[in-house]
Structure formats: C-alpha cells, structure tokens
Amino acid sequence: MVVNKLLATEQAIAFVKETFSNELCNNLNLHKVSSPIMVLDGTGINDDLNGVERTVTFPVKQIGDRKAVVVNSLAKWKRIRLRELNIEPGIGILTDMKAIRPDEDYSPIHSIYVDQWDWEKHITAHQRSLECLKSNVRSIYKALQNTEERVFQLYPEIEPILPREITFVHSEELAKQFPDFKPKERENKIAKKYGAVFIIGIGGKLSTGEPHDGRAPDYDDWSSPNDEDFYGLNGDLIVWNPVLQSALEISSMGIRVDREALLRQLQEKNDEDRKSLYFHQKILNDELPQSIGGGIGQSRVCMFLLRKKHIGEVQVGLWPDSVRKDSENEGINLL
What we know:
By secondary structure, the protein is an alpha+beta fold. The chain has 9 helices and 11 strands. The chain has helices at residues 2-28, 77-84, 130-154, 171-177, 183-194, 259-268, 278-284, 298-305, 321-329, and strands spanning 30-32, 38-40, 57-60, 66-70, 92-100, 113-122, 167-170, 196-200, 234-241, 246-255, 291-297.
C-alpha cells in the first residue's frame, strides 16, 4: 500500500537525519542548540543569499509593528550566537534551520521550503586558511560516508556509492578545464568524474568575468588570497546523483569574513551602505569571533542517501498541481 510506503519513507528520513546530525556533532565537535525561524528586519542578521531574493516579511504587533523576516538561513545569526554562548575555539554549534524562500524555482531538487543543518565553529585568526577549510570539509564528508554505511546496514538494497575521498578543485581551475560550459554544466562534468567534489571560491569573479555562483558579501570570505594562489576560503560540497544523473549540491560553507574581507567584498558588490547595520558593525569592530560554518541540506541528504527522484519524497512542501500530476504519472509519492 502507498500509505505503508510513505510511512516507511518517513521512518527512513528520521533515521538519516538523526544519524547524520550525530555524526556531524562528533566529527566537527558541535553542540546542538535551538534557533529562530525569524529575525528583525533591518539588522543585517538575515542571510541575503544572492542579494536579490524576496523574504517572507510581516509586522509584529507587540514590538511596535516592527517588521520581522523569516530567515533564509542562519549564516550570520550563528556567529552572534557563538559569542553569546562564549564558545571556545575548536568548538561549534549545530542548529535545525527551517526557512521559506518564495523565489525558489520548483525542480526535483528545489522547493520553497528549505530545511538544513546550520553549523558554525569558532576558529582562531591563524586558522583562516585553505587547510582549515579542507579539514572541515573532510569531516563533513566522513559524516556523510558513515551515514551512508549505516543506511546500507539497515536497508541492504541501498548500496554505498560515495568515493573513498572527496576531490578539491578551485572554481577558476574548473572554468579553465571546461571553458565552453556554464557553471552548472561544469559541476555535472566534475561531479560525474569524481563522485564527490568540493568547489573552492564561490562568489568572486573568475577570469571569465563572472563568478561561478553568487554569494552575499557579508558572510563567506570569497575574496582573500588562499594557499594555492587563487582567491576564496569558501565553497560548495557536491556529489554525483546517479538517480537524477546530475550534480547535487549538499552544502555551501566557508570561513567567514573578517573586517578586511567584509570591507573588500562590500565595496566589490557596491553594498557599502550595509556597514551601518547591527551585524556588520559587530564585525567591523571585531566584536564577533572568527568562525567557519555552513548549511547542509537535510532534504537533499535524505534524497541522496535514500535514492529518491524528487525532493518532495522526503519533505512536505507546497507543489503546483502540474508537479503533483507529473509525479503521480512517474510513480513518485510526494509527502
């Protein structure tokens, strides 16, 4: 029965989420903490993503009708929380983030509802390096591998496919390797070749004149020189999805901006008016800890590890009638 299949899927989702979040905490030395679904507008705390997406905004009567916004992610809030909790270097926090992004285009891997593990870890100034970034990426990847193995033990029909090691490549190298392809096409090429890759340097302009992908100027550091004669201390973790025969971004993450990187990136993006906002003032006055962090898509991890064709199979969302009809015709059971 479809009902039993749906219930079995729900049980598998719960298993993946619990297993992976525990692996993350163990591998990255994180503590689980509670987190908000909304923050006050005009503070600079909400994640602006690419800087053009709309947010879900509403007035709050009890605080003078000031506007609040549903978070896009907790990239900035977590850094403030590190300071408030007085977290020591080498230790971090993990939150269960839920967001609504009304401008997302529907696809098998996109929904307007976003659920992700948002994590942030306190680092020291001398750890602002490519090696620190790579070390944390390897820890996340190990958590993904361990969870895949646990899934296999419980569901023997889902055999492990992740390669033993994750491959690192800079977005500039990727552009030169595939000069006639668009960024997403490059991701497909490199992910299919290696199975799992981390693309470094997301947000800064490449020799092509365009960035590999957009990034807001005030959380990830995509402009600082790194140890390999390129720019950027951030990136995306991508795996090859054999069900969809395409690259699948699992995580966006990076070392966060310090004062110098923030000023440089605000100027490059022509967003210097943000300097007066609460969050940005905290960075400019060196009142927030140096950190590394990112978001890891919960539904995407579940979709990948459970070999599902559509993100609606692992999350309850709002879907147009056309999507529901097409899914039904393909035998896809949306939650």
